[in-house]
Every structure is written in structure tokens, then in C-alpha cells.
Amino acid sequence: MTQYLSNPGLICAGANSAAEFFSALCEKRSALRKLSVCGKNFIFGRVNTPLPRIKDRAYATRTNALALYACLGVQEQIEQAVQKFGAHRVGVVFATTNTGVQENYAEFFACGKDARNFISQDGESSAPCSKIPTPNGENFAKISKAANDKFKNFCFERNSHANPANFIRERFGLKSVAIGVSSACTSGNKALIEASRLIYAGLCDAVVFGGADALDELTLQGFSALEILSEHPLKPFSEARSGTNLGEGACAFVLSRECISDVAILAHAANSDAYHITKPDPSARMQITAIKTALKSAQLQSVDYVNLHGTGTAANDAMEALAMSAALPLAPASSSKWAIGHTLGAAGAIELAVCYEAIKQGVIPPNFTNDEIWLGSEAEIFCGVQPRRGERNDEILNSKSDQISCSLGDENLQNAQGKISKSGADKILVASKAMHGAGDNLHGTDDKILDDKILKDAADQASQTSEIPAALSKFNLACQAKKARVDTAMNLSFAFGGDNAVTIIGRA
User: Fold this and answer.
1) Residues marked as catalytic
2) What is 3-99+160-417+471-507's CATH number?
């Protein structure tokens, strides 16, 4: 069953449509800017466009305002679907990772009426930290007691991950299912997968799907605590990459069983390896599996363009380079997060729009290439060694043009495969046993220096990774915009917890 994609509705930092965002990518313009939140400086992709006002308190969040803006961009397609199939046959699947957190936080802890929240609906500036007490161990009891009388006014519905989906269904008068998706960084991509499944199962004839996230203080501080945020503009697959930046935005499509465009979903795949709560599996085994599964389902050997997850963190870029080298070494590929930041629940949907525009416009968008391309190393892949930190980019961020300009390049990213043989893995195990013996002599059997199982797992992983053919040591990182016929495009999303999602769209 062929399922067709509408044109996207989109809003993100520096762009109010998919075409506008795609032009910024091709012209190598970034909307990342400095932002100070409670005394900490961040690089952030913030939406400055005035957003629709939402009167219903249960839905009055900046996340929903972003979602509504994006959905208004496909309002005509929504109305046509309702006219064609009936409101009871049009569903909603919308992704988010946080919704209403800052609004509820401000209300619950009784910010004054004049206090301005970081992500209020209209995007006003952050309130002073003193206005928003932090419930730490020392003052939590006191704050809780003081806030008890306000608890009855706490709007639980705002914090539901289904809140954007329910809001969109109600706002557009739809009568079918409304599903919220929240699987961290794969959420936006999985929204398309779930929408496709609804149509395939015969539960809907059309589905409004997408993702939206407005960044709040909680999310920023949480990612900061993980030490993966960079004080510099993020640089996917750069030698100077030093972490990611966050952003906000939304994107929406209509997926229909009726022909509403010449672009359709061709295949999808998803899996999870549960490798680590925050780190990707450095061997990229399940990521490679997801890519190959999607290709097989679409009956393709390769695709014309790949939008990379490309967060600019050491661990993700190393893993993704390995996955691409093994599964799609020739396909032109680039990340788009360098321009607007990582928009979390919205990222997969926004990057699907990049794939859509690449097909429609016949252009391969470029990766950020202001620095030397990372060539990869065993140390980074297997030991988690951080790459060198890039130089501060204050001059660029404060320039009169208010844009980040990138140099051109045509290098292909090279990724060194971990050449650790089975014999090498066996040597690791021999060493572990020897050290175990030393530990037993020094500390007794219950206090061992090393855990044999941990080292065995590491050795097995090293051995498995080495099985990837050495010939697959490169992938085609697009370093400049290039005119090309794009009939098929793949969207990659990788999330915390080892969650992976791959979608392929193309000309129907």
C-alpha cells in the first residue's frame, strides 16, 4: 500500500518553512546564538517568530504553539483529508520529549505575574533564577508545604506526552486516534512510522504527524549535566567537534493513502540494543541492522541522500561514521543540526522535511565544514577518548551578519575500523584472569580488581566490530551543496537507550 506525504509545515530557529530552512542549509547559514539561562551560557537554536496564542490552559504551552504553527502550514491538506475521508478517519501522531514543563513549574512555584519564563508561549526572556526556587533536598519540604494550596491548580494534562497530539486533534476537529510519541531523539522519525502503521492497519485513511519541542531550563540543565553540550557551535563529524547544542522547533506532515504528492514513504525500520542509557554502542551493530533492514524493505541497495543524526558529540559521530561506512559508504550524506541545534522530539520530523526538500529541489544539502574533517581513531571508538575542543567561535556568533559562515570542502569522512582480532580479544581475557588472580591474593575473593564479565563483553565487542570489512572505511560526507537527482532519501535517528529509527522516502 503506497502512502503519500504532503508538503511539510515547519518552524525552527531562523526559518518559518521547510523551503526557507533548506535554503539556509544550502547557503550554510546557521541560526545558533548565545543564550544565558540562570547564569549558564548555552549555544541555542531559538525560534523568534511570533507564535499563535492558545487560550485553553490545558494546552497553553510553547511546545503546542510551535506544533500549531507547523500544522497551520498543512491546514489545507488536513481539511482536504477530512473532506475526503471524514474526520473520524483522520488520526494524529505527534512527537515530543517535554511539554508544559516550564509553564507548570512556574505556576506551581508561584512566580509572580510579572515573572517571565524561559519558554512562555510568546517566547519572552527567562525570569531571574530567584523567581523560580529550585526544590533541592534542603528546601523541598518547605517549598512543598508552601505550594500545597496551589497543587489543586496544577495542570497535569500539560505534562502528558500525548498533549500535543490531543491538542492538534481538538484544534482541527479530528475524531480518530491521537497518539503521543516520546522516545527521545527518535521521536519525530517514529511519528512517521506510527502514522504509517495506522494507515496500513486500516485504522486511518490519513494521519497528521510530526514533532515539536520547546526547550526549557530543565532540559538544558539536564543535558548540561551529561556534559554533552558544547560552548561552541556544534560541528558534526568535525575534528573540532566538542558536543551538541539544543534547539526548538516543530514540523508537521499529512500522510495519506490517497495520492496527495509525488513523494511517498518507501520503508522504515526500528530497533533497540539497550546498550547504555546515554551512550551509543560503539560497534554500531544494531544501527547497521536498522539501515540494512530499511533498505531491504524498500528493495534498494543504496539511496540518493542520507540525513545523518549528526549530533556533534564524540560518541555519536564515531558510531554513526562506522554505521555509514558499513551500510551506505557511497550515499551522499549530511547532518542539518549544525544550523538549528538538536531539536529533540522535533528533530526527526524536521530532518524528514530536509529529505523531502532534497527530493523536490534536487539538491544535496551540505554538512558543516568549517574545520578539518574527522578521520576517526581506535581510541575514540573503543575507549571513548574525547576529541580536541574547538576554538571559541565568539567572533562568528557576534558578527554583523549574525550568521555562521562555513568554508567549502569536498573531503570524504574516513573512519578507522577497530582492527582488534579474535586473538587480541583472547589476550584481553588472559590479562583479565591474571589480574583477577592478583586481586584475589591482595583483597580476597569477594573484592576483585576487575570484573571478568565486563572485560569479556568488551573483548567480544571488539572482536565483533573487527569483523566489519576493512574496505568499508569511508562514507560520502557532503561538504557543499550539490545539484543532483534525488529520488530516494533516508532519515537516520538514534536515541538514548540504544533506540534506533530509520525511514526512507522517495518519488512514488
Assistant:
1) 185, 309, 342
2) 3.40.47.10
